[in-house]
Design goal:
By secondary structure, the chain is mainly α. It has 23 helices and 3 strands. About 2% of the residues have low confidence.
Amino acid sequence: EYCTVRYVRLQILKSSTMTGTATIKREKDQIAARAKGAAGAAVAGMDVDVASLTDEFDGYDKLAESNVDEAIASYERVVTAADASADDAAGVTLKRKEMAFVRAAQLFKKHNHTNAMKDLIGAVRPFLSVISKAKGGKLFRVLLDNFLEIDNATDEQVAVTAECIEWTIDAKRRFLKQTLEIILTKLHIKARQFQDALAVAQPLIRELKRLDDKMQLVEVQLMESIAYYALSNYPKSRGSLVSARTTANGIYCPPKMQSALDLQSGIMAAQEQDFKTGFSYFYESFEGFDSTTVPDQAVLALKYMLLCKIMTGEADTVPAILSGKLALKYSTGNNSRALESMRVIACANLERSLENFETAFKVDYKVELEDDIIIMSHVKRMYDDMLQNNLCRIVEPFSRVEIAHVAKLIKLDRSLVETKLSQMILDKKLPGILDQGSGTLEIFEVADEDKAYSAALQTIEHTSQVVEALFAKAKKLS
């Protein structure tokens, strides 16, 4: 009887447990279904809101085609509106303002409205405290990138970026501050304010070393090398470049950054007159930039490749390089003048025409050549080579010629021509003598080298070695 009662109690308990479990499971399923339905309704509502906002901002952009000021005012009303209230569960107001900031920045960039962009970047700062730091940082970078793409506004860009850095310090946004300091360093280099670039880069390098942020450290060290090179401090420029390459070896370096390192390495090699090594670096850089679709930098690397060929006396290979498969697509378009300028310089070198050389530098391609720091650092040697080649071309037909006549043909001052001719004679680049009494240059015929004399000297040297070897063996035997 006791066992029977015990069994009945167990069956009742089991039945109630199963019923409770089923009830809990059913309630959970109902809650999940309600939550799923609510989420779906929210997403559907958000999609509708985003679509309506897109239509609204498309209308503003269309308005800009006829009345830019009215479109700007429309965007300003949106971005200066009050932030979302507590009952804005879907965040429609936040989304509207976020989209307005992005679309307004694109419109201002398109119409080069620098002042409006400055005001927009200032207006976004209070809004960043309402949204998350990650989303806020991304939005701020989008606005700043659009601002930096406006042409001929470098001074304003420097001022705004410096002001934003001060704001990041007050707002305690350390990582955004580092990003802005990198941008400010680039802007200083672009504006050729190299001392200011170093003033920003050097404290930043120390901070990045402490944080062990190697990717950004490579970028800043590379910019430091560029700034030192522009200031003609070549030892420090090489030191910064070596540090950047050493840091890059310890991490994965993106192709674009590796190409930039190769470009600067080629520049340093060319500065040390090692143009063959420089050409190799420039070629690697050109291939890297070409594969990462950075046409401006690819053309720059190709331009320096041609410079190396001209400096090594291989100007005749320039047309072949320009007609190559990779270089051919850069021969047309906005960057074609940079390559055409090097082709003209190569032709002037081949024709040994100093007049064509000076015309290319000072008239036809002044922007492409004189405004390039790297090209200008090699101009003096290039000019001397062109002057020597031109003088050799002029005096070739003569055995005796007046210095004044040579100066008249080359269209230079007589004293300058006389000084250069005397230097060429001392360097044994021109066989001749200057007769200052008569003011003439006498050119000697170059006699063929007598190979019998050098062969006799070589025979005597070998005989001496044989005699010394026999003498050593005889000494051992005795």
